[in-house]
């Protein structure tokens, strides 16, 4: 971030949504029935304050997890520099103190203390196209502020399109080496994302970072390396998983390229692994998520809450479909995907395939196709995870995978948007348990989004149900005994969102008092609005509550009063930093 944060990082914004609408259908699942799970609020989450009236926040429509639209910034230079002052308030932890905090172990287990450590996502363009740290002075100041607030660490996108941009095997770690050293200096842990996808084309992508030049060159020669829909539209966010094991990238397969990249990262930063770098999140699709690019926002192709479209029409995917159909004794099913599944912006009942009564999704053909489509995605994830776990074996880091929180039309029978994304989740089938089981086999963490959302905040005519979805995923990860981590899908600075995150992270969805919490929470994203005094005060209180864990009995207002004092004490430093900035 530039020292004047307001002119460098766009905050996330959207339009206000309508109030809750009464709907008919409710969601359920065969193996993880989430509709009947009763709510268990955290104990003493709020104090009784007679006469207190809190206004609900202005809400925004649900978008993809790394999404954000730029809006005009509203912060003064003094607030931008405030984090410089926060860094002077509290000395950094020593290495011994840091190691005495949450100990990150393989499999996501925590030792020494309870609670959920909070990480903060860095700006997407923290490293420039010239492989240097972007807005270094302000970024350094912001890291001071985050550390002083009790944040455990930061999440950094390590872009394939920057590091291996020019030629195969030619890695330039320039800006990342400096950025990681900055994190180490401030005593912050790092979640490093192996970002094998393109940045740009989704809401909130504040910069454009395409795939490596030599990769896009191969796509130009063979367009079927890109995901393709039934109308021939190519998606260049991420290579089609249909060519995972084919030597289509100058003699290497895509999976080999991903493995070589991770191996080079390991070798270059081995001195930081297990100490500063504590987690490797492996990108497996658009926005770094294990899914198909079924709802692309570039050029207005898809808009919320459309059902999306299947992405199986490149020649490599069709070849696999043909082979699967022949193996099933139904060769007539192998020539194409569903042709009656509507368009990106249709709703389920608009289409013969997804409609609730007599829909193709609930026929033998539909079951065959959806099983193949989702299995291809699972195998893709397993191939990359197998490489990642082998490469980082013994390095003292966790491996994690992000799964998208597709909560719109969740209340319908077919769950169409989840199906087009590759999650075979319907009213009669749990699509998240197989994902959790696959991650468990590889010792990986299940990272899930939309943790901050509440059902009644979302457009009910689209039968959105993020809370029910999060509960289903919580039950699935519990059954598979895989650690669960979370992220917020949209930037939220209000107590309502913070309290929802606290509830979700406690994992008390079935009413039991098991000693289980999320293994981490990553906050989206560092931007100017986070450092606004009111937002900062609430954020500091939120981090403290997360660190205390679900067994804490202190109420929210008590923690906020402490945060208020913290912010008040730093005001002189804010003014001093502002004067220094102007000169």
From TrEMBL:
GO terms for molecular function: beta-amylase activity. It catalyses: Hydrolysis of (1->4)-alpha-D-glucosidic linkages in polysaccharides so as to remove successive maltose units from the non-reducing ends of the chains. GO terms for biological process: polysaccharide catabolic process. It comes from the Eukaryota. Keywords: Carbohydrate metabolism, Glycosidase, Hydrolase, Polysaccharide degradation. The active site is at residues 289, 487. Substrate binds at residues 157, 197, 205, 402, 407, 449, 488-489, 525. Its EC number is 3.2.1.2. Pfam families: Glyco_hydro_14. Belongs to the glycosyl hydrolase 14 family. This is Beta-amylase. The lineage of its organism: Eukaryota, Viridiplantae, Streptophyta, Embryophyta, Tracheophyta.
